[in-house]
Design brief:
mainly alpha; Farnesyl Diphosphate Synthase; globular; metal-binding; transferase; Polyprenyl_synt_CS; magnesium; Polyprenyl synthetase family protein
Length: 338
Amino acid sequence: MGVVIPLEEGKNKQGSIKPLVDLTKGDMDRVNQLILSKAGSDVQMIPEVANHLISSGGKRLRPMLTLAAAQMFGYQGEGHIKLATSVEFMHTATLLHDDVVDESDLRRGKSTARMIWGNQASVLVGDFLLGQAFKMMVEVGSLDALDVLASAAAVIAEGEVLQLSVAKNMETTEDDYLSVIRAKTAALFAAAAEVGPIIANTEKAGRNALKSYGMNLGLAFQLVDDALDYGGKAAELGKNVGDDFREGKITLPVILSYRRGTEEERSFWKRAIEGGDSSDANLEQALALIAKYNGLGDTIARAKHYGMIARDALAPLPASAHKAALMEVIDFCIERVS
């Protein structure tokens, strides 16, 4: 692989996930124990496939959001542990299914489950984890929390199908793209944050604040991810640089570069993305065009915009260690581009 576009943003890192990790550590230890317990099965392949991904080093940001959101509103029960585990299982199931749909070889720097056990096992173990997630939601006994997470599961599936429908279509608009990532990624962030205040019986304003925070954090998170695919390093990404290009995914750096390009350059994008000509030489040209039209810089600018909306969503809430930690998470997610 040749040129990788250097991302200049975020040289002076300030955002950190550490305050959130520290605040939720005790509860996350319990979540991790429950994850291992609920991923167990007498069918040997189920824990093998599940643990391959579960133990592969993800930050578990989504379940930490659930725990922190419940804690910041004074929740004293046990339900947040099961809801946080449900959120992580939903996320893991989505990754297992995504890797099959996208025909991905790497996930977090390791071979994907589908490469080891095959597509069928990956899909079915993902289904098992979704089943376990919904069992735990029911055990918590909050119909509102169940409604939020069940609705998110449906929206995520819609997002996956929408992404499939716009794949390799260079006429995809920025609005189409935002609809995909709002459903595919941001919906689970929003649900993960919202169920915390729900089980803490918080007033509507608090619930709405965390929902808006999660939604906009998720949008910022995915925008940065999509920039990193063209501007990161394989070791940091846990996947190959340019995977989105090879899979024909229409992400914002591509959309912006296509719209801003000459007729000849747009013809190139059509050949490469719609025609499936994702050779290394064409990836090099794609990187050059994205650099020429500032596709990465403007994608990061969009991410910062949604980060500000997430920050504003939390602004009316009382000052607390949890609020400060959630604010830092915004900067952490955006500053991954450095």
